[in-house]
């Protein structure tokens, strides 16, 4: 009887100690890791988000610096996830991502699914072509093959243009594939934002870009789940970055070099 009692007491002590330790460890773990923001991007959009494969497999760029700064100010750690551009907005909606940041333009369709921070960048759309093609403006696209990134506002722009001009619209998941196919004449033109075209136009002298829509048509912003109160905090930091010169430094670092 005594032995049995002893065993019960020992077991209870063991259970209490064990669960106590477990809890302590958990708490320490949380404190150490901080709050983690899972940030989705499509790392094919230099200089906003891309991988410089010659140097490392890390995602770098203007957007990456931007979110790291915001996260640091607000006490978050960032975990970047590379995925097809097309799935970013739905992944924020479904909760797979906390945030999507990929030069994402605010547009009506997306606003039905997610909320956006204030706009942090404005961009023109370009029609990128091979110089010798003679294509200068949308009207020249008649009978041609035009490419755009799947799920992008450039795809939407292409659909819009197609209503009045008769061409074939093709989409690809990744921007570098579009450029590759343009260079090898499988595509006659690619619709892409000016800021993301600069690198290609510099590198490939046979390509040229002509503006087909103006800056104020689209602005980039960060997508978060509908009603997420982090949006106000993000906006506060964005505003501060513009005021204290942090934003200009990032522009200088990524666009003027
Ligand atoms: N601004 C365009 C859009 O929102 C294209 C963005 C593409 N971004 C990227 N990381 N590939 O549809």
Automatic annotation (TrEMBL):
<keyword id="KW-0564">Palmitate</keyword>
<protein>
    <submittedName>
        <fullName>ABC transporter substrate-binding protein</fullName>
    </submittedName>
</protein>
<dbReference type="InterPro" id="IPR018313">
    <property type="entry name" value="SBP_3_CS"/>
</dbReference>
<feature type="domain" description="Ionotropic glutamate receptor C-terminal">
    <location>
        <begin position="36"/>
        <end position="257"/>
    </location>
</feature>
<dbReference type="InterPro" id="IPR001638">
    <property type="entry name" value="Solute-binding_3/MltF_N"/>
</dbReference>
<comment type="similarity">
    <text>Belongs to the bacterial solute-binding protein 3 family.</text>
</comment>
<keyword id="KW-0732">Signal</keyword>
<feature type="domain" description="Solute-binding protein family 3/N-terminal">
    <location>
        <begin position="36"/>
        <end position="257"/>
    </location>
</feature>
<dbReference type="GO" id="GO:0015276">
    <property type="term" value="F:ligand-gated monoatomic ion channel activity"/>
</dbReference>
<dbReference type="GO" id="GO:0030313">
    <property type="term" value="C:cell envelope"/>
</dbReference>
<dbReference type="GO" id="GO:0016020">
    <property type="term" value="C:membrane"/>
</dbReference>
<dbReference type="Pfam" id="PF00497">
    <property type="entry name" value="SBP_bac_3"/>
</dbReference>
<keyword id="KW-0449">Lipoprotein</keyword>
<dbReference type="InterPro" id="IPR001320">
    <property type="entry name" value="Iontro_rcpt_C"/>
</dbReference>
């Amino acid at each position: 009887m005594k032995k049995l009692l002893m065993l019960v007491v020992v077991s209870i002590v063991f259970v209490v100690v064990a669960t106590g330790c477990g809890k302590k460890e958990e708490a320490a773990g949380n404190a150490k890791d901080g709050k983690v923001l899972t940030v989705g991007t499509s790392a094919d959009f230099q200089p906003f988000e891309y991988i410089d494969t010659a140097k490392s497999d890390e995602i770098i760029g203007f957007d990456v610096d931007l979110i790291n700064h915001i996260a640091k100010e607000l006490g978050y750690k960032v975990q970047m996830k590379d995925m097809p551009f097309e799935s970013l907005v739905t992944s924020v909606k479904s909760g797979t991502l906390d945030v999507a940041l990929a030069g994402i333009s605010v547009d009506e369709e997306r606003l039905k699914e997610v909320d956006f921070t204030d706009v942090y960048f404005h961009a023109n759309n370009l029609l990128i072509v091979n110089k010798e093609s003679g294509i200068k403006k949308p009207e020249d696209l008649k009978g041609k093959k035009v490419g755009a990134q799947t799920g992008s506002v450039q795809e939407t722009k292409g659909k819009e243009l197609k209503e009045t001009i008769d061409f074939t619209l093709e989409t690809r998941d990744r921007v570098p594939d579009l450029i590759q196919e343009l260079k090898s004449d499988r595509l006659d033109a690619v619709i892409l934002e000016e800021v993301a075209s600069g690198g290609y136009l510099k590198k490939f002298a046979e390509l040229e870009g002509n503006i087909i829509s103006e800056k104020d048509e689209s602005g980039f912003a960060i997508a978060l789940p509908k009603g997420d109160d982090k949006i106000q905090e993000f906006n506060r930091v964005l505003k501060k970055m513009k005021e204290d010169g942090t934003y200009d430094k990032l522009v200088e670092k990524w666009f003027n070099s």
